Amino acid sequence: MPPAATVEKMFSQIAPRYDLVNRLLSLGLDRGWRRRAVRELALQPGDPVIDLCCGTGDLSADLRPARVVGVDFAEPMLSRARVKFPELTFLQADALDVPLPEASFEAATVAFGLRNVEDLGALWREMTRLVRPGGRVLSLELTRPEGLLGVLHSFYLQVVVPLVGGLVSGDFAAYRYLSRTIARFIPPEEIARSMRENGLVNVRVIPLAGGIATLHVGIKP
Description:
This protein is an alpha/beta fold. α2 packs antiparallel against α7 and α7 (about 145-170) runs antiparallel to α8 (about 170-185). The protein is about 45% helix and about 20% strand. A seven-stranded mixed beta sheet has the order 3-2-1-4-5-7-6, with helices on both faces. The chain starts with a helix and ends with a strand.
């Protein structure tokens, strides 16, 4: 994958139309996926939660009434998040090196960010560091379904995502890149194995929409 600085620049460029493109390309399904993620965490009001690679803050907002800190490295994304959700706290930082104390949170989340992280193991270790013992680490990521749905999904990735994303955002290269990251990313079981290898236990794999997206939830021992 490209260096982190290149990925940051790309997300900064597409920030103005990021939300609209997401709604269009997911056919609105992303809203339901985020709600399912929140239900899996079963948070109580006021629980401290950190949302890494938070983008424009949609999952951060859905995690309320927990006490949420959203983290992203692209300031234009965070600028939009702060306008949309001024009551929430947002911090510009690298998801692999968050300047906050260890064991500060009940849960740590990342949505649609794994594919853009240089070191997946380092991400799990940082998320684990940030949560208390017994706390939960959750990922919501786009994945590749199997069978006939997988064939249709491949066409969608190769043709529809770059075309629609490029037309709406004005950046065809960014959505060609994002399409490739989905097509080439490791499958859900390998994601789960990576979580276990980096210290998380009781890892659960929850396919959504036939495997178009997948939730992973692990526990810090």
